[in-house]
Amino acid sequence: MLNNWLKIAFINYKKNWLSTAINLFGLTVGLTGFMLILLHWNDEESFEKWNPEKDHIYYFQTYHKKENSYGNNISIPMAKRAKEVIPGVQDYVLFNGSGIGIKMTTKYKTVYQREGMTSSESFFNFFPFKLVSGTYKNALKGEGVIALSTIAAKNLFGTTNAAGESVKFDGKNYVVTAVYELPKENSQIKPEFIINPVEQIKSDEKNWGNFNYGCFFMLKEGTDPAIVQQKFRKEVFEYRAKLDKDPSGMTTEQYLDLYGPTASVLTPLDEIKLHAKASWFGTPDFKTIMILFTLSVLIVVLSAINFINLKTAQASQRAKEIGVRKAIGSTRSNLIVQFLLETFMICIASYLLSLALTELLLPSFNKFFDKEMKMDDWHIYFYSFTMVILVTLISGLIPAMYLSNFKAIETLKGNFARSKHGIWLRNGILTLQLIISSFFIIGGLIVNQQVKYMMDKDLGYSGKQILMINFSDFNPKPWLKYERLKTEMSKIPGVAEVSYGEVVPGSNRSSSSNVDFMDKSIQAQHGSMDYNYLQFMNVKLKKGRWLDPNLSSDTINNVLVNEAFVKKFGWKDDEVFKNQIRPGFDNKKYNIVGIVKDFNIRSLRTAIEPIVFFHYRETEWKRLNVYNIQLKVKSDDIDGTLKRVKKYWSGSVEPGYPFDYFFVDQKFAKTFEKYKKQQTLFTILNAMVLMVALLGLFALSSLMIEQKLKDVAIKKTLGASDGILIMGLTRQFLWITLTAVLISIPISYYLMNEWLKDFAYRIDMPVLPFIISLLTLLVLTFVVVSIKAYKATKVSLVKYLKYE
């Protein structure tokens, strides 16, 4: 029996070679896209899985109800109190620096070591890297100790057996207490060296409002993190509010609503990469993964739709075969199994081809996402094979049920075609296919328009020809270093102007605090700067005046604010200058002397934040945080100027350190990379969808038109022109296309509007993509179907009418 089924299957494959090829192609393309996106998702979910403590470690985030925003910082007193009073908290680890680079000196050499991290002493309880040398006991306890990775140890000492060795930086000697091997598995936490900033931690131990630290909590076995989150508000946030609030009658609830945070969020360690609300280690983006995965599944669905349509359209060729088999005793279940086998063979062939194609495309896919993924995870094979089984069942069972339902007596008489069930099934499934195709066209055009809008939007500043250089060498008085360099570097040929600013577009650096006015408070970014910085960046002054170095008050208690700041307080422009504010970075009150136009410092996905601009000398700790110098270079010799600046910097300013620089406009442009990649992927998926859909439409129209060749011959004999015949054959498909697009419009509108909601700066929902989708699909449908329809008009009248 099986042998006969296989013979019949291959006869039908050969007889309907075009349909077979289209099914193979469509399923192969769909499964390849599915596997590549699945690889990407699986890779993103695999971060931190190596850690044996992962089930007990949770990443801490805060929620501010008033702002409806999430943060990823905590103060030291909060972390300490959580451990002391919340029963489920076993331990915590703090960190306030990652990706650090330091020039280190040993008795062998001097090396600039990158990718360091500052952490409290319990780090290795949370991240038990493989120990190579030394001990983890007290490895980060006290001052003057450092732990190194095997790579850093080899860089500094030429060996991994470096425990006990001495290394010097920042004018201090440090003893290497441990050498560890970083995990080969995916991890966002891979420090090449770790130091404990003991002095800084001691100075911040009693400062409840210093949210400069990230934190992981280790919970005891069996502890429910949801209960810990509840207790965190009562035992930590409310406790801090009672300590900090002034005696003005403000309730604890009012204090938390005003200053926040109002709630905590604990995310499991191995879910940070994709599912954290906010993270020190990169912005989580589970939504994009899900969109891509859904789109890849839709392509597989389209392929399955092709299969169903083509199988049901071929019913005329199988009807008598089914009638004969039923007449000689074949059961309905036997026929269903036979048709499922035929489908499974096509699916398995597509699966094997897709595995080969995935391997072929993987290097390019890795390059696109900057990854090193391999086809070595059984999950990929399991889920993709499961998809093959599902496709087999869905695309095989529907035609099998349909074909096996033919009545033997009717099919042998040739009357099966009078039933309208098959026509409705094919038309319904073809409509679904075109709905999906229409959505892809509409979605692709809207994505393109949104990305173009962001790239063309006036950012409110000009970063062109502005070179920013980060300070790498530690300096106890960095503001004096800047002031000296400002004088010296302005003499370099090609340098037009020099300045400093804390808020630099694209840099992702952030420093903020509450700003109070009477009984109202908002969160605002700190914009410490040199006097000329805003003019240097070509930011526009809306009202008031700039800071003036000749006015002593402008270095004491005068500030500028942006439009977002004014709007947040609900003031009119004229009211701003009558009010005094108290920023969280100081205890004294400040006067606002100017309002500047809003300009973007982050991705256009986020709204412009309130910013307070002030001279860096106003407060002592802001002077200590001067971290860059910015140069505006002349346009006539940018490359030459860059070489001269680099030579001066490496020779006279920070010898032995890397020249850490970027052009501001190019750095900000990188914030678009993610969306440009989404745009590219959507375009590729769009092309795949249209290709699969149109090939299916061509094959289906070919089969259906072949069934009408006798009607065509009769009409032609009666004098119908080629144009009338072509329109008659294509009309049905055009109506289906029109119906599909009209159905897809509200669906596409809703889904794309939800996508656009993620952007603070977005286009209004355009009408053109919906019109283009309609016209494109109508034209493509007409072109694809009319090719076969035109050939049908050239039929041999004798061939089809000789028996009539």
Automatic annotation (TrEMBL):
InterPro entries: ABC3_permease_C (IPR003838), MacB_PCD (IPR025857), Macrolide_Exporter_MacB (IPR050250). The chain crosses the membrane at residues 21-41, 289-310, 335-358, 378-403, 424-447, 681-705, 733-752, 767-790. It is a multi-pass membrane protein. Pfam families: FtsX, MacB_PCD. It is found in: Cell membrane. It comes from the Bacteria. The keyword Cell membrane applies. Its main location: membrane. Residues 20-234, 432-644 form the MacB-like periplasmic core domain. Residues 294-405, 685-796 form the ABC3 transporter permease C-terminal domain. The keyword Isomerase does not apply. Keywords: Cell membrane, Membrane, Transmembrane, Transmembrane helix. PANTHER family: ABC-TYPE MACROLIDE FAMILY EXPORT SYSTEM PERMEASE COMPONENT 2, MEMBRANE COMPONENT OF TRANSPORTER-RELATED. This is ABC transporter permease. It comes from Chryseobacterium pyrolae.
